[in-house]
Amino acid sequence: MVSPETTLRGEVIEDPIYLPQPLEEYDCNPFIQALNPISNEDEVLDYSTNYPLFKVSEREYGPEIRAHMIVRLKEFRYPMHLNVRLERAISIKIRRGYTSRNPLNKEFHLKLLDLSEIDKLEDDNLRKEKIKEIKKKYPSSADCLTVIGTSGTGKTTGVDNILQNYPQVIRHTFEGGVVTQIVWLKLECPHDGSVKGLLLQFFISIDEILGTNYFNKYKRETVELLQIFAAQTASRHGIGLLVIDEIQHLKNPKNKDSDDKIMNFLVKLVNTIGVPIVLIGTHAAREILTKTFRQANRAAGEGTIEWDRMENDTEFRLFVKEVMRYQWQKNAIQYSDEFGDVLYYESQGIVKVAISLFILAQLRAILDGDETISGQLIHDVAVKELNLYQQMLDDLRNGRKDKLKLYKDMPDLDKIIEFKVNQVEKNNYLERVKEQQTKNEHQNILEDLLFELENSGMFNILGREALKKVVNAEFNVLNNWKGDMAELKRLCFEAALQEIRKSESKKRNPRKRKQENKGVLIQIFEKAQKDKVSVYERLKSEGFIKHSSEFLE
Prior knowledge:
alpha/beta
């Protein structure tokens, strides 16, 4: 069953504008006239494209911020020639499907009345006869379209972009009342492949779009009656296109007859009600979809679009060049055919895999601190992060097409990316913790040194602030300090003595040639220099320096 959050939503038009049509059979039909004008190729390419936000200056942000920026690449949409072909197929199917359903013609309303009689018939044979009668009485102009391809190639995204270019709901006000038109409705085949699950999802989705109460009204009915009510509802609201994604879920061993039941129902919608249908699935659904076409007897024209992976050709290279504009690691790289070949080998031209690899490689580059990506890094990421895909990718590399039908769905790449983003954030957090711990440790050391200098009684003349400056200066100068406290202590004592010497020098009268008696510390300092020994060691030997523990006794 579908939840409200997963129902694809579109625009609702309350006051439609009815446009003149270039085709005579499209004119004088409000269901068609209220639609957007037929798109040209440039318009299709424009709304099939989406480039994420990016500024070169963003490379200067911290790792945790850039990790979020890199995920913008998931929104990247690059149009391919298949987008134009798919749009034209859908555009034709919606409009052709409406040519036999015009709310201004009495046949539209008579058909609704005939459909409303079906559920009143208690005998199943009588219902079948009534359906045949309706099919004969009101010829359908609708047909099917199937979109088949490897998971992750952009089938669903391509269809969604086209659907959202159309309004989803249009409310028409006629003399006889208001007719609410649903231009398109998109469902996802239940994972268990159940007929009832799909039918209930149909009513839930309409309720979410229109605010109706069909689900509560029909949820306890049998599958047979649910099919009748769904057909009535589809006709009542003039559904222009029914899209069912993930149709490969019908191949469920637990529901061996589910594919036949659902397909029979869908064929009835096409042939009897006149609702065009688009079925989207992986290669695992090919057998089911082929059978549906035989049943619908409508395999002519744009019957099937093979939406497969890109070849390693000009189109893929242009795609990679465009993706490579979005690099948030500090050391951006330029496109090369060698890099393009590696990305193709590891993704096999599957758009989602290629983009995900590029995202994961950038996250890894930031996480490792190298801040650069390469073909080798793409390979390493593919092996480590996409291990669940390797068998399918290997089958693609070696042309084992018969194996492709075994793969119903692709593992969730978004979860892999989310995990890697969390790793970057965790790593950044740990670095901050380490920095704070080091800072605290250094502060403790500085306090210990200051304590020893003060309590030695040798440097009272300098005062606490002067001693603090001495300790900080020596600590900062000793960049390669590796925990050698004795060396650090020696430097601090010598620096403090140097400060006393400077202070004493300033106090002397420069006119007097005869020196006054020197302080004891200055004498020790000068004697140490003369004997070329450490001042610290001389002070220690003279008993001026003790271990800090002695002051605590």
